[in-house]
Amino acid sequence: MNQSSTRGLEILLALVMMARGTSFIFSKLLLETMSTFNVLALRFGIAFLVLAALFARRLYRASRKVWVAGFLIGFLYFLVMSLELTALTMADTGPVALTEHTSIVMVPLATAALARVRPNPVMLISAFLAVAGVGMLTLPGGNFSAGLLIALLGAICYTVTIIVTDRLTHSPAEGFVVGIIQLGTLALLAGIASLFLESPHLPSSPAQWGMLAVLVLVCTIFGFTFQPVAQARVSAEMTGLLAALNPAVAAIIGALVLHEQFGWLGALAVVLILIAITLPSWLRILPPKAGKVSPQ
Predict the structure, then answer these.
(1) What is the per-residue pLDDT across 107-128, written as a single tens digit (0 to 9) for each?
(2) What b-and-e string marks burial along 179-196, b requiring 16 or more CB atoms within 10 Å of the CB?
(3) Is the pTM of this model over 0.70?
């Protein structure tokens, strides 16, 4: 794949992360009247049904390897989303999003460790800048709550998910089908958990339906489904850095809508995060994944 095509997929992945960053505010508002697994089951279940109806033929023709990848990644995302929504019931959207995305430093370090090589110095600098920005927004008062501890566990799960997605998706077309299957897997697991642990119900007002619609269409159908598409040709390291867009957007929306604390320090943090994201591309240190050998 040529450099322009790879850059296009990096832009797509950036848009995906920004779209998913808006999910924190809508999820938090829905959680005021609905339970965690109930929200997850509805959000991902509706998205899966829409996509399965539109692309039934592609699902039918998918190989066993693609289905296994979708099931595994869907299970991992079930863990990530369960921890994320639980954390949102205990802490503000900005700190939760930013704590969860400390994965931006975990990913390049983990991939280097798995490959038994030293991390690229520029990637380490970018990761350091991103984490510095995350720290400025995550702990403005220096109080690490139980909600943020749960979000940190989510960060570990998210790191594993990014790396597994990187290893199991090898083309945009394959990644798209994996993305659909992972939604169905997540919805199924959340539905089972909701039936046994909660009292599931549908949204009770037009406003709640509207928030659910945004979660389904923008944050899920676009946000989740197209991440494997882009990741098929974008390295796990760059994916981890672009993930910083997610908490940056969440923090800004949280400040504007929920009036969460976000001052000059927060603005400086966003600048650091954006520099961290763009620095590797400026220096052109990240090769495309076109030459990656599929695992046996």
Answers:
(1) 778 888 888 888 778 878 888 8
(2) bbbbbbbbbbbbbebbee
(3) yes
